[in-house]
Design goal:
- The chain has 9 helices and 13 strands.
- With about 300 residues, it is of the alpha/beta class.
- The chain has a single domain, classed as UDP-N-acetylmuramoyl-L-alanine:D-glutamate ligase, CATH 3.40.1190.20.
- α5 (about 175-180) links the parallel β9 and β10.
- α1 (about 40-50) packs across α8.
- The protein is globular, with a radius of gyration of 18 Å.
- It starts with a strand and ends in a 16-residue tail after the last helix.
- One of its GO terms (biological process) is phosphate-containing compound metabolic process.
- GO terms for molecular function: kinase activity.
- This is Sugar kinase.
- Keywords: Kinase, Transferase.
Amino acid sequence: MSVVTLGVHIVDVLARPVESIPEGQDTHLVEQIRITAAGAAAGTAVDLAKIGVPVASLGAVGDDDLGDVLIMIMKRHGVDVSGVVRKPGEQTAASILPIRPDGGRPSFHVPGANLGLSLTDLDQERIAGAEIVHLGGMDVTWGLHDPAFFALLDKIRENGTVVTMDLLSNMSDLMPAVRTFLPHIDYFLPNEEQALMLTGADTPEAAAEALLAEGLKGALVTLGGEGSLVATASGHTRVPALDVPVVDTTGCGDAYCAGFVAGLLGGRDVAGAARLGTAVAARVAGGLGSDAGLDGPVEAP
């Protein structure tokens, strides 16, 4: 496979629009309910497959009905899921997302089997054979906070594999452990809050510089409606968000990562790959769920 995504796999159940939680046993009618494959590895994998990039996804799900559903959805969209392990007795990670009319997304979440993913669960030959490995949600895959996993990343990078990384949460107590991954990856794609918490900086620009100092080739800080900041040794570039009607922001970060990875794979420079990421994220923001609006190749503006 050209790309391997590795990390968090989640089932999302989404409903829109939701203005409030009904009192007691009341029912509110909504326009749409969807179930999707999500999470910083699974969601990115589905987005890559839907825009035409061959991809395998590695991670852990429970040996339960939700795991069956998640694997079925990913396979239907063309993701190679043979490296997703089933954990007997564990819950598949899942979220319930009531989407507000403005696209905001509070959530109810169970982390499930993601917490127990470890190096022994991973097909190391498949990882070594990828052109790009995308790490999704290393802040919550605690079993991969392992020197042996860092050594694997160093080995594949020496052999030419590019390693990118995104996070799942904005929980400050998880950020210190994230820093241990930075010397072992090439491109890091945090959101603004994550970047500021990780570095203690006051601005995205200062945060990006601090992240580059860890040895990265590039730090790409996503800024929501303000687009993203792309920082490399050559300097900083602001990539504006596209002006599109926003239905749901779920999965926009994963979509940005998918577009960025696809751009690198296609030979774009870092800023060009970020522009493709922006275009893919804009498609997803226009519909419900982490893969909305993706039905073929996406062109960057």
